[in-house]
Automatic annotation (TrEMBL):
Database matches in InterPro entries: TPR-like_helical_dom_sf
Signal peptide: 1-19
Region Disordered, residue ranges: 722-750
Name used for this protein in its record: Gliding motility protein
Keywords tagged on the record: Signal
Highest classification ranks of the organism: Bacteria, Pseudomonadati, Bacteroidota, Cytophagia, Cytophagales
Length: 873
């Protein structure tokens, strides 16, 4: 009975302890222990496993400044969805089953982090805010606020981030662990804002509270990199040395030692042999077998500083072939090759192809990739037209030869290609290491250039070429000599070369590059239509290349050469007037005989707008985007109302990037905010609406935005609004606006002025004829404005006597209307000159040369201003 009584008592105690409602000592103890070491513990373990995997899967790029935080990889997060779901379920159980335990708030924190990692940002913010308000643990509140700060930084919510930083700065008794995370997050905040000093200062403080040696090593490396970039070599060397502590990964140790030597010795040392020996030792070290490309790349940069361009290029080419563990390094190598070919040799063709290679190794979303893509735009056009001129010119020359001469040219070409392939095969013949087996007869002389046929790539290549000359391009097969075997038989019976048979594979690859005589002869044009087509392409390419070289690449001499070829070879070209005009501008820049082109234009094309331009101050060419941006708006609008929000956002983004200054801009921005309301947080939606209302001038759109904002306002905020502003809005107003714009567009079409995307444009200031004399600082101020903002452009200033009441100050040339509009926008916002009335400034406009010619005849400024407002704004 006693035993039964004791057992019953124990069961009774535990039964009572299981209750999550009774707040007794026994209950609290039971739930604290169970929640902590069961549900919460397992939820935390699952979450940390995923965090560890994110860190493990991230490939550090030590050639660039390391990020403060390892970026969250969405692919890794998705791949671990089961673990994250398990963590979520366990944390939820810790909250639901153990309500009176001390681990409820900690479990909420896990749920907040899970929402954060899985991009449920609104839920994460709400959870973190809930913990901050309700938790009794200061440590947990601080930890939560620090994570919330990082979330705000990720989301670009600067005001909320600033408020959180200010709040935390006033908190006392922040633990060392939380201080470490706080300073790291502050460094991340400054990193996102581009504040280099802020990052360094925050990381310097973080290192004081770091308890993990590996994390301290990484932070020291980041500090060293940043000090090196800022030119503080002594500090950089000190932090590189510190980063070697804490048993860092070998690759980081390698880079730390490499860069430490750079800042301490390599850049300052006069003992060049010692420096080069240092790189050679690194290269020969077996531990660096996966970093050979980095060693040779750094050696190339060192030789570049010594002024040895040829050796630098050789080393960069070697680095591109060396093995490496980080593909991005290859991208940097090719980018460097492109830079040298551009700056040293002005070889635009080589630059383009090196940049193509660089992009194949760098992620397209990387800022460097975006920069390269932008740089490549004009180079792509250059190479396209340059190569088309080369190819078409060669084909036209061949077309003039007799069939016998054409065949001889083809044979000589194939022979030269065979010689090239033999040279490449010789390069593949790498010397092998000498050993005692070289003394044996069967292996004799295989160490430096084997005479054994299947070990000699040159002999194999020569054999393949000889076979091709004798028998043609036959497939590999057994019994090919038999008379019954057709030359056209195509089913090979000999298997493909084995994977290890690198020489055979390489030889076949090189041999496959050889064309046949028939293929070469087939490319030569032999009909009038084919020849005419090639000439049309040549005519276009000479013109486009000349224009590109003048406006984009600033190669005036080469531009003149191509344009002169155009007018000489194609005297009936429709592009001739503009070619004359460009030659006129180019010769003025070169100090040559520009008047000859004035005479030619007046003689051959007296009615051309280009003739008008050379007879008057200045002009250039243009591009209007209103019609296209209207089409994009309609597409985005339809996608939005079909529920295709991401597609709508993509269309809006492209429209705003390509056509940033049209009357559609504000409507596109409002539509983009509407997409935000469907895809992002309410706070973000409200913030964007408020900013839009504050900065937009279109009253109808402002009213619509206010109506969209109304449902998110409190009663107090609504009471502060003017009743007139509370009129019910409807999204159909956007449709009405679109219809209104279509009506306006029809008005543009009925105007005598026409929008021409390819026309030359100028910027015009209409003023009283006496103003230039009274406002003596106007022209100097314009020159200073150009020097500060458009130093790379070839802008000129001139006067045009429009009528008795007005003179026009003209600024030109702008190669397209988009550039003219960019100038117009910047002029209105930033240009200031004493004596220039605001009315004159606000009434300025841009105009194409064709339209300026019409305006000079009609003298109707108001008519053009109406067209300008409809088409350009």
């Amino acid at each position: 009975m006693r035993r039964f009584s004791k057992l019953a008592l124990i069961i009774l105690l535990f039964s009572g302890a299981c209750s999550s409602e009774r707040n007794t000592f026994t209950n609290r103890t039971f739930h604290n222990v169970t929640a902590h070491f069961n549900a919460y513990y397992l939820a935390d373990v699952r979450l940390k496993e995923v965090e560890s995997e994110v860190f493990k899967n991230y490939k550090e790029d030590y050639t660039q400044i390391l990020p403060v935080f390892i970026p969250l990889d969405s692919a890794t997060i998705q791949a671990n969805a089961e673990k994250l779901q398990s963590s979520r379920e366990l944390a939820s159980k810790a909250i639901e089953w153990h309500k009176i335990s001390n681990w409820v708030d900690d479990s909420y924190y896990i749920l907040g982090k899970l929402d954060y990692y899985q991009s449920h940002f609104d839920d994460a913010q709400n959870t973190f805010k809930y913990i901050n308000v309700n938790s009794k643990s200061d440590d947990l509140r601080h930890q939560t606020l620090i994570t919330l700060l990082r979330l705000y930084v990720d989301q670009g919510e600067v005001e909320n981030a600033n408020f959180t930083i200010d709040y935390l700065s006033k908190e006392t008794d922040i633990s060392e662990e939380n201080r470490y995370e706080l300073y790291r997050t502050l460094a991340y905040y400054y990193e996102k804002r581009g504040d280099k000093s802020g990052v360094i200062g925050a990381l310097d403080k973080a290192i004081e509270y770091s308890k993990d040696k590996k994390e301290a090593s990484r932070i020291n490396f980041i500090l060293a990199q940043r000090y090196q970039r800022e030119g503080f070599d002594a500090l950089a060397h000190e932090y590189y040395e510190k980063s070697l502590a804490g048993n860092p990964p070998y690759e980081r140790s390698f880079y730390a030692q490499l860069y430490a030597q750079q800042v301490a010795e390599l850049n300052a040392s006069k003992d060049l042999r010692k420096v080069r020996r240092y790189y050679d030792d690194l290269y020969e070290d077996p531990k660096n077998k996966d970093l050979k490309d980095v060693v040779i790349y750094e050696k190339a940069l060192f030789e570049e500083k010594q002024g040895d361009t040829e050796l630098t290029l050789d080393l960069l080419h070697q680095a591109a072939k060396e093995p490496g563990s980080n593909p991005r390094v290859k991208g940097y190598i090719y980018q460097k090759l492109a830079d040298i070919n551009l700056s040293e040799f002005k070889d635009y063709r080589a630059t383009k192809y090196y940049l193509d290679s660089a992009l194949s190794y760098i992620n397209e979303s990387d800022p460097i990739a975006i920069q390269i893509t932008s740089q490549k735009e004009s180079l792509d056009q250059y190479v396209f037209h340059f190569e088309r001129i080369q190819d078409n010119d060669s084909l036209l020359n061949l077309a003039e030869l007799t069939p016998e001469e054409q065949k001889l040219v083809a044979e000589n070409y194939i022979k030269s290609e065979e010689e090239r392939l033999m040279r490449e095969a010789a390069e593949l013949q790498k010397p092998k290491s000498t050993s005692i087996f070289d003394n044996l007869l069967a292996f004799n002389d295989r160490g430096t250039g084997s005479s054994f046929y299947f070990d000699n790539s040159v002999a194999m290549q020569q054999g393949a070429i000889d076979f091709r000359r004798t028998w043609g391009n036959r497939p590999l097969q057994d019994n090919w000599r038999r008379s019954a075997m057709s030359f056209q038989s195509s089913a090979p019976t000999i298997p493909e070369p084995a994977e290890g048979d690198s020489i055979a594979t390489e030889n076949e690859s090189l041999l496959s590059q050889l064309p046949t005589i028939d293929n070469l002869l087939a490319e030569i044009p032999n009909t009038a239509e084919q020849i005419a087509s090639l000439n049309l392409e040549l005519e276009a390419s000479y013109f486009e290349l000349g224009k590109l070289l003048y406006f984009e690449l600033k190669e005036t001499d080469q531009s003149v050469e191509n344009l002169e070829t155009l007018v000489r070879v194609y005297p009936a070209s429709s592009r001739k007037p503009e070619a004359y005009y460009l030659l006129y501008l180019a010769q003025k820049d070169l100090g040559g005989n520009s008047q000859q082109y004035v005479s030619r234009l007046n003689r051959e094309f007296p009615e051309s707008q280009y003739t008008f331009s050379v007879n008057n101050p200045d002009a250039a060419s243009g591009n209007l985007a209103y019609v296209e941006s209207s089409k994009r708006y309609e597409q985005a609008y339809n996608s939005y109302y079909s529920g295709e929000y991401q597609a709508s956002k993509a269309i809006i983004k492209s429209a705003l990037e390509e056509y940033p200054l049209t009357r559609n801009t504000e409507r596109l921005l409002l539509l983009d905010i509407m997409v935000t309301g469907k895809t992002e947080s309410k706070a973000k939606y409200r913030e964007r609406l408020e900013n839009y209302i504050e900065n937009t001038e279109d009253k109808s759109l402002v009213e619509l935005a206010r109506n969209m904002l109304k449902p998110m306002l409190s009663q107090e905020e609504l009471a502060e609004l003017n009743p007139k502003e509370l009129a019910e809005g409807d999204s159909t107003q956007i449709e009405n606006t679109a219809s209104e714009d279509k009506v306006k567009n029809e008005g543009v079409s009925s105007s005598p002025f026409k929008y021409n995307e390819a026309a030359t444009h100028i910027f015009a200031l209409v003023m009283d004829p006496t103003l230039p004399e009274t406002a003596k600082s106007l022209l100097p101020d314009i020159e200073n404005f150009h020097a500060s903002n458009f130093s790379k452009e070839r802008l000129r200033t001139g006067d045009f006597n429009f009528n008795r009441e007005n003179t026009i100050l003209i600024i030109s040339p702008f190669s397209n209307g988009e550039k003219a509009k960019e100038y117009y926008s910047k002029f209105l916002k930033e240009f200031k000159s004493e004596g220039l009335p605001d009315e004159v400034k606000s009434n300025s406009f841009v105009i194409s040369i064709e339209n300026f010619q019409l305006l000079s005849k009609s003298k109707n400024l108001e008519e053009y201003r109406a067209f300008f407002k409809s088409a350009y704004k």
